[in-house]
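User: I'm putting together a small comparison set for a docking exercise, and I want a reference complex before I start. The sequence is below, and the ligand is alpha-D-mannopyranose. Could you produce the 3D structure with the ligand included, as structure tokens?
Assistant: Of course. I'll restate your input first, then give the structure tokens for the complex.
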Amino acid sequence: MLWLLLLPLPLQALGATAKTLGVSPRLVSEYVPSKSNTWTCLDGSKQIPWDYVNDDSCDCADGSDEPGTGACPNQPFYCQNEGHIGAFIPSSRVKDGLCELDCCDGSDERPGVCEDVCKEVGQAHKKKVEEETKIRKTGSKIRSTYIAYAHKEKKRLEGVIEASATEIAIRENEVIRLRDITERAESLSAAALELKQQSPLYISLVTHSNALKSLQREHKKHLQREEELSDILNALRTGYNPNYQDMAVLEAVRGWEEMAGLPHINDVGKDSVSNEEAGVQEDTASDVAEPEEALDDEMWSAEELEKDLDDLLNSDYVSLLLEHDEYVQSPTEGSALFDIASYLPDSVVPQFEGFRETLVSWLVTLGIIKGETPSSTDTSHLRQALTDAENELKKVKKEKEDAENDIKEIFNVHGYGLEGEWKKLDGTCLRTEVGDYTYEVCLFGEAKQIPNKGGSTFSLGKFASWNPSPDVKPGEEAYYQKQIYNRGTRCWNGPERNVVLLLSCGTENTLHSVVELEKCEYQLTGTTPALCRPLDNFGGKEGKNSNASRDEL
Ligand code: MAN
């Protein structure tokens, strides 16, 4: 209490000032003594002598008797900060010998410890606020153009949705029509094919083919039998005993040798038979293959039969039938009836065309000419048209779906903001060069680290969310002051690269700084007009706090 005596103020005034030291303006009226010079604790729990207030000794249970001394724990101390903005500090920081900017008037310390710097602090603060206000004013104008853009974009997307809905209806009908035509044409083609397959030429072709197949099978059987017989006769030739003079055996051996073009076994000697054998086989084969009489030009040699017959028998007779059909089809448009139009003046051609169609249909009905039978089996162009129409329909449906999803995001608190102020920035890329890299963030897209001297670019992640902190409510200013980009290129022996982008109000969309806080975890800072709310519309925490401080003054 000694320091109070040192102040150059009349004692009464000094006491009064001292009693309300640290009291917030809202409660000053409570700090007056009763007639009997007593005072009641703010919670009403106790009556104490007025002298006990701010006497550096805690008497009330709620600590209200020591607003300015720090004697009671966990009490707020109010610094008036005249010339600046009043502020509260905790009682633990009262009389701790430290001068702090929150209490620029030094009222929390003993007199003489801290200078009153509120004038300077107040001026600097005013200047800063003025600058910020200027930026906010300009920024909020830009922001309002972003909002206007979002409304325009919404209208445009509504137009897209409406137009694509109409187009979908038309295209759906077109698909139904084409599907119907294609299916009918395809079933007609099946009927036409069945009809064609009854043609005598086709039936005969198939019969020939079957006969040839059977012949080939029998031929192969005979070749096999011949080989087995050769083996038996060769064994007989080399194995028989000439000393027995068995004429039947000798005759058989000689007969076989003659037929197969072999020398008589007694002249050759049995030892060399095995060597001779290979040659025998070959000779025999060539003897057999050798034509007894010259072949006609178009007849097949044994070799061709062996090599090519299978291919021939594997022909696709249905395709052949269709090709044949196309080949023999007489060109209907060559007839005089179809040529007349080219001799007529243009003005009467439409009437003539109509008349021609009616005439042709009569002639077909009367059986005088052959109408267009379902002969065209090629429905692939129809199928293609149907596929194209289905693809177009899918495309338009996708366009509509995308527009519907986009529209949902525009005025969504988790998307482009309740006012749609972020929509304009979708895909805007911000860049800055730091060290060996250029850092790029395409808002709502991907962040990248691009080496300046060559090498591979790393993805630092894709947009994942706004500020995910549970303490921050979606929609408030702090929510939009942070963007998270994650799942970037994995760090060697580390996590996937990711980015926290801290944004504040600024007249331009720019990046200011990049720091790699942990390995592969990057913190980027930047500014954007999207965060410059109009001055009369401070919706976030920041705004509320500033208002609160003013109230206290
Ligand atoms: C690259 C860059 C750095 C990162 C290392 C980790 O050099 O992406 O930012 O720290 O890889 O290996």
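The mean pLDDT is 84. The radius of gyration is 53 Å.
User: Thanks, that's exactly what I needed.
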